[in-house]
């Protein structure tokens, strides 16, 4: 299969790189706002420009900053993305014209080895023509004028990219479908729990911006990765604070992006701070993951700095027992993302939970199990008449979802449903997996369709 070319979008803050990125990938993946510095990490997604397929990389705005300040770390991430790219789109703003910062970074771009295409964004009306004319003085060749907001000028961008982006070879689409199915793994948690540090430790690269400042991550950062031959899409998300404390527009957008990442995930790793295990906000996030039907693994981070580990373990078990009883035997593992300890056990647990989440149980096995359960503990009678559990089947996986046909579903107590769900977990080895259990009225709907296979 032909590897996708990597196209990095670079430029100073607020020139429209994220808007262009969203246009290329045909989704609103990057948060867009008028304030400078909205994008802090670089993120990538597959783009399609009139059949020309490539990996688009949205980067943080280039600023002339040094040292360990956040802007300097953002610039370092952009420079790394640029070094890994096959071609760069250097984006400037036609409305503002060429600025001293544009000139400075144009000089930088000319000296590095990655080919550069100069893109003049926000070309809308005659008032922006002077900015387009100034772009020629940057010495980066003929500029490509376009409007990312309105979708104008993308035919010229296509022509500019063709020399650097190979046309997909015949049979590539079929090759893309072969092999194991990709696991979508979202890393979530409160601010400063160590989510970005965990992502960097897993992939062995400073892929996400980290630092002592809370709320560094805004966009969800997607990284394609492989663990034990299993393809994984890692998603680092913004920290989720209590809703009442979220007042900033950008933070609200970041939280919405995190919620979207949870909904699209297969497995969610909830990163906990070992010094504040499963506080109220952690529990809120865990319940949200369960409600969305995603497989959940708890990663107790910063375990290396915990003084009384036995006391912490007991506190964690107590909190799970009292506050997450709806997901029995949830997996919780101590790790240190900073020192890269416990990561293999964490990822092995992720693979196991994904496979359990994708479990399918044959109808014959389910109904033999159901007969034993109802014989040991029959459903409570309704007005002196038996409430017969007649038939059961699994109607979907991801998460495992079961339907039970009985005489009076409306009268079956919640306690009896919990008895059946807990029995399912024990009999079919489904610890820590969200289970959906639906009640239906009537006889066996498949009674006249032949016997079920095991």
UniProtKB/TrEMBL annotation:
Its subunit composition reads: Associates with the 50S ribosomal subunit.
Matching InterPro entries = AAA+_ATPase, G_ENGA, GTP-bd, GTPase_Der, KH_dom-like, KH_dom-like_a/b, P-loop_NTPase, Small_GTP-bd
Keyword annotations: GTP-binding, Nucleotide-binding, Repeat, Ribosome biogenesis
Keyword Amino-acid biosynthesis: yes or no?
no
The record, for HAMAP family, names: GTPase_Der
User: Which CDD domains did the record assign?
Assistant: EngA1 (cd01894), EngA2 (cd01895)
GO aspect biological process, one term = ribosome biogenesis
Q: What does this protein do?
A: GTPase that plays an essential role in the late steps of ribosome biogenesis.
Q: Where does GTP 2 bind?
A: 189-196, 236-240, 301-304
Q: Which NCBIfam families match?
A: GTPase_EngA, small_GTP
Organism from which the protein derives: Roseiterribacter gracilis
Protein name in the entry: GTPase Der
Task: Enumerate the Pfam families for this protein.
Answer: KH_dom-like, MMR_HSR1
Every copy of the EngA-type G domain together lies at 5-169, 183-358
Answer whether the UniProt record assigns the keyword Nucleotide-binding to this protein: yes
- Matching PANTHER family: GTPASE DER (PTHR43834:SF6)
The GO terms describing molecular function are: GTP binding
């Amino acid at each position: 299969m032909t590897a996708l070319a990597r196209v990095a979008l670079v430029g100073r803050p607020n020139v429209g790189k994220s808007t262009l990125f969203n246009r290329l990938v045909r989704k609103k993946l990057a948060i867009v706002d008028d304030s400078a510095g909205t994008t802090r990490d670089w993120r990538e997604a597959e783009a399609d420009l009139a059949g020309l397929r490539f990996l688009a990389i949205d980067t943080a705005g280039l600023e002339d900053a040094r040292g360990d300040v956040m802007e300097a770390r953002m610039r370092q991430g952009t420079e790394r993305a640029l070094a890994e790219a096959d071609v760069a789109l250097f984006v400037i703003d036609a409305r503002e014209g060429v600025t001293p910062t544009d000139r400075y970074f144009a000089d930088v771009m000319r000296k590095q080895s990655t080919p550069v295409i100069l893109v003049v964004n926000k070309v809308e009306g005659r008032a922006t023509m002077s900015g387009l004319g100034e772009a020629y003085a940057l010495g980066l060749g003929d500029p490509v004028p376009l409007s990312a907001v309105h979708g104008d000028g993308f035919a010229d961008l296509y022509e500019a990219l063709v020399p650097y982006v190979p046309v997909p070879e015949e049979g590539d689409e079929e090759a893309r479908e072969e092999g194991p199915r990709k696991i979508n793994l979202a890393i979530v948690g409160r601010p400063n729990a160590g989510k970005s540090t965990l992502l960097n430790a897993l992939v062995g690269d400073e892929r996400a911006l980290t630092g002592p400042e809370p709320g560094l991550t805004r966009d969800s950062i997607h990284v394609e990765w492989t663990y034990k031959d299993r393809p994984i899409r890692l998603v680092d998300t913004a920290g989720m604070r209590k809703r009442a404390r979220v007042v900033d527009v950008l933070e609200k957008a970041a939280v919405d992006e995190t919620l979207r990442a949870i909904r699209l995930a297969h497995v969610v790793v909830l990163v906990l701070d070992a010094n504040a295990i499963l506080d109220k906000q952690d529990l809120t996030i865990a319940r949200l993951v369960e409600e969305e039907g995603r497989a959940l693994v708890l990663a107790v981070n910063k375990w290396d700095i915990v003084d009384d580990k036995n006391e912490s373990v007991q506190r964690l078990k107590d909190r799970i027992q009292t506050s997450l009883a709806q997901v029995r035997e949830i997996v919780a593992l101590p790790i240190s993302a900073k020192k890269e300890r416990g990561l293999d056990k964490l990822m092995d647990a992720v693979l196991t939970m994904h496979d359990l989440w994708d479990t399918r149980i044959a109808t014959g096995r389910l109904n033999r199990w159901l007969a034993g359960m109802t014989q040991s503990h029959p459903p409570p009678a309704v007005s002196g008449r038996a409430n017969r559990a007649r038939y059961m089947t699994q109607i979907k996986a991801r998460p495992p979802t079961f339907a039970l046909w009985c005489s009076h579903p409306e009268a079956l107590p919640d306690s009896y449903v919990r008895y059946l769900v807990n029995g399912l977990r024990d009999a079919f080895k489904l610890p820590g997996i969200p289970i959906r259990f639906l009640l239906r009225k009537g006889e066996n709907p498949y009674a006249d369709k032949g016997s079920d296979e095991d």
